[in-house]
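Quick start: what a row looks like.
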Amino acid sequence: MLINAQTRFCFLLGSPVKHSLSPLIHNSAFRELNLNYVYLAAHVGKEQVGAAVKSLRALSAAGANVTSPYKEAVIPYLDTVSAEAEMIKSVNTIVNKDGILYGTTTDGSGFFQSLKYQAPDYSFAQPVMIIGAGGAARAVAYTLARSGVEEMYIVNRSIDRAEDLAALIGKETKAGSCTALPLEADKLKGMLKSCRLFVYALPEDNEKFMAALAKSSLTFSKSIFYDLRYRPQKSEVMECFSRSGGRAFNGLGMLMWQAVFAFEHFTGQKAPVKAMQKAVKL
């Protein structure tokens, strides 16, 4: 990759970012198409979010991805955001359009494409449980509801956030029902038997949820568990679900596909999907 005075920069903004595979994915794509771009990971402190976003304009950067915990925090510093990003209050992609900073989200579309690729037999008419209510969870829930899921449960440690997301889904989509539940084992057991897709969107394993799965006598042979994290490769929650007969996936596929859509926002060109998949061994 040649870096010169015409090189365009893209960044990953978040904390932490040292573990991220996003630079590998994007730089592989730039090389494949011989584009004069480079993608760098930037650790951003909590007090520097605004300065980091504004620097994209000052440095004429092509754009940036935003990861935890700043997907909502960046919004006040943007000039405009997509309707979906504004609705779910989550931005994971920022594009610099001639000095105008535009925010959007590729989390939902990335998850949706990954799920279709890894579990093409899943019917979106089947009930789904979303565990978490942060930016990625909101994007996934909104996308699934718009894609035909008729019954959805939003589970979260803060029931208020779960209720807010459930209300949003009910108002803005045609989902038949969307119910908020607290992250408590005894409250979840009755719902586990009906759900066919479980999306785990918490930053770390939660022992109460682990216990609900581990102690359950249910068989999950027809169910899918999708952990939005891609490290560890197979989390304890995934192991627990697999032992009960279900299929479990980590978030590497979602990471790759959301990068595909972000790449196209940054460059205006069709992403080299195969090169990006090869970079992360998908």
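That is the whole record. The chain has a mean pLDDT of 91. The longest helix spans residues 252-267.
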